[in-house]
Amino acid sequence: MLGVDAGILIAFFTVTMLAIYLAAPLIMSTLFSIIIGGPNGIYSYLLELPLIVAPQDSNGTIGQQLGIPMLRVFSLMQTIALAMFAVVLIVAAICYVLENFRIMNEGTAANIIMNSVFTLILIFACQPLYNTAAAAINLFVGWPDVGGLGLLIPSGNTIDILVGYATGGIGTVALPNMDPFTGFFFSGILIMLVASLLMLTLVMGVTRLFFTGVLAAVLPLILVLRLIPLTKPFADTLLQDLIGFMFASIMASIVLLFGYQVLISANLNPLTQILMAIITLFAAAYMSTIFVGKFGALGMAAANLVGGAVTTAAGAAMSMAGGAILGGGAGMASRLSRLSGKGLTKTEMLNQASQGFVSGAAPGAVSGFLSAGGGGRGGRLVMGSMGMRGLGRTVVSSMDMQQRSAQDFLSNRAGSTLSAVLYKNSSGDVLPSASPESSALFMSELDKKSSEDVYAGYVVANYPELAENLKDLRPAGLEIKRHLQSLPPEVAYSNWHRAQTQGSLPQEGRATFYQNARDEVGTNKETVNTIQKGIYTPNLEALDFSPRFAIDT
Hints:
By secondary structure, the protein is mainly alpha-helical.
């Protein structure tokens, strides 16, 4: 059992790792070039600031496409802000009255009136002021291909090299970071890390652009709310968040530049280079959460959701593949075991083996997928080490679900077969001779029997093929005795006497009985468990030390 299972698992992981290694360049190129949009996409998601203006190019970046909705919302907020000036004047009048009663500080009403004049000017001037500042930052952080000056990042090749280092040279840029042997073992891990990182960039970038556009579009309303004492703290927070988004764009470009300079200048080993590139992209994506308060938390929540979804999807795929491999192996072994000794040619055997593999792979893949999406901690959307551990649990869970069927077909050893025989004999109908008196007498005699006597009367007398391969007589007899004692007397009596009739069967008939018992062991266990809760489960599989019985069978 161990050798066959180990061979299947080794073959599965070897084929999976080889497939990932060969497909890694295409996967990375698709993620980076198509989904993210290459260097220009990284610029748009992490660096660009949207402008309150209609875009000149209908196929521009996401930041440019936000111009039209920002312009429409800004016009509406401007109208609402002007209408709110009446409310501001009423608040100023109330404050003036309260000053006379010394409820509010003297001069509050005058400050509101003076600030209102300045705010009224800003309501009409905030659009060109914001656009000027945002456009200046875009020129500062961008490169010529995206309309910048290249002061910090000279070209999109800088982003290409960063992503190339992050993928260990197997992605968008052919860098000599890792030799093929190391890349073979690390490509799967790198795909998981970089896929999560690029999806993090996508969701954090969209979140940053969205909330920057929202805050810039509601600037007129924010300015008016700053005039009212009760809403001034809230308005100041929104204004600080907008400034934080703008400053985060500059810091993200500096982080990318610094990481690039470290990679091309420092003498680092390949794994350190990969880690440095991943940290650089990770830090640039998370920069907006550092300088932005309230909206930064929303961005982190969205990133956790997407990262967990990527991890769960990858775990489901791995579980489906693992379930298909193990289920296919079980189906193949089952088909071949039933055809053993029928004199088939090699071509016919190969055809039957392939059909058995296909018949077992489909339900195995379904079982693996269900185990990946089941309840418990394996279904949570988590990131980082928790996500990787969840992926490991998912794969192991899938293998565990296939273990029972694989053991039925692949082990065929004496201890496991004897256990299946016990359950089959216990799940049958109660014999007509199992009266209360005869059953009670049998249980009394069973109590007096030693383990060796039970083994001789149950196994040696009736199942000689099993007896030849079970060397530990006392443990086997003890397990059988405990199982029978845990049953109702009539069931135990029927089990024992049913076994006595099977010793007279021809060897071929017993072989068929063994096969049926193994095939039905799951159903028979459930039947026996319904007879008596907490029934003793025999641990006869521990005696599976001899492969001879499997060969003979």
